[in-house]
Amino acid sequence: MSLPSSNLIAHARKASEPMANRETPFIYNEWYVAAFDDEVGRHLLARRLLGRRVVMYRTEAGEPVALEDRCAHRSFPLSRSHLQGDTIVCGYHGFRYDAAGDLIEVPSQKNCPRGIGVRRYPLVRQGPLLWIWLGEQALADPALIPHQAWIDDPAWACTSGYFHHPGNYVSLHENLMDLTHLSFLHANTIGTPDYASAPYKLDLKEGHYTLIREVVPTTLSPVWGKTTGLEGCASAARIATSEFLSPALHRVSVTFYDSAQPAEQRQQFHIRTAHILTPETANSLHYFIVHGRDFAQHDEALGDYMHEQLFAAFNEDVEGLGALEAALDDRDDHHYEISVASDAPAVATRMYLKKRADAERLHTSRKVG
Ligand code: FES
Ligand SMILES: [Fe+2]
């Protein structure tokens, strides 16, 4: 079979080429979301993050804590232990750790060895999210958290949800940078047939990749048509901006209006979605989502309808990418893929992830070596 080359930006790529794939190591020197703030309380919550086992809880004063989930004695998971005040008593032989992760008691002896403990990870609350730093402690600067102020802004009515996603985080980044899939994977939910072929603009600044797709005129899918009052309007506009903001975060911002109205009279409707990705293992991730709208903020029924429809669509991504992951598991030529022109932002994103992962490994091996 021959392939038309004009729209191909690359032919079959091999793993040796610089695009991240599911074999690329994680990037640790970044803030990731460990949990929604309200998941962490006066109990031990176990979660695997970037391959590491972490246990989280909240002190009596309300401070969220994240520790390595592995007793220093014989590696028993501390998450299978119990809280005593602000300390964890290991469920195997009773070694006790304080909230800093320091070992403070060994029940079988009078003296507790000093300087022993488990790692405590920086954990910072920003609105409804708890951000964790699993990389080099010295680089953990909370100012680098890609906080989304709109999530906390009363002008935006927000709902949130979570999927345990059965795929590699790189493929979800790619999915979010290639919204041509709306016309196919989401044909019955949020997609319309004209979406994939609509004109688009790119801004590919390193580490901040932006794709703007303008679908004008169009007819909106029911979830947007019913909620904006533009249902059935053949002159609707749908302007979507997808942004890769960090290895942990994408933001999708969409504006809807009736393009037949004069510009100064148009009512505009805005929605935003924070797609928050925290790798769990090489083939699974924690997918947190916060979705907001700047209209009908107090209309609970409308909010519920939008949430239900949107999460049905996001579930199509989860199921679709899970199927993709399983298909790759069964192939020994899984590095084979071709890219077309509309893949440019996804390719840029994957190259960036690869570069970051390689740089981090080099840095670590230099320090060790
Ligand atoms: S493994 Fe935790 S006290 Fe022994
Ligand atoms: Fe999707």
UniProtKB/TrEMBL annotation:
It comes from the Bacteria. Residues 31-132 form the Rieske domain. It holds the Pfam family VanA_C. InterPro entries: Cholesterol_7-desaturase, Rieske_2Fe-2S, Rieske_2Fe-2S_sf, VanA_C_cat. GO terms for molecular function: dioxygenase activity. This is Aromatic ring-hydroxylating dioxygenase subunit alpha. Keywords: 2Fe-2S, Dioxygenase, Iron, Iron-sulfur, Metal-binding, Oxidoreductase.
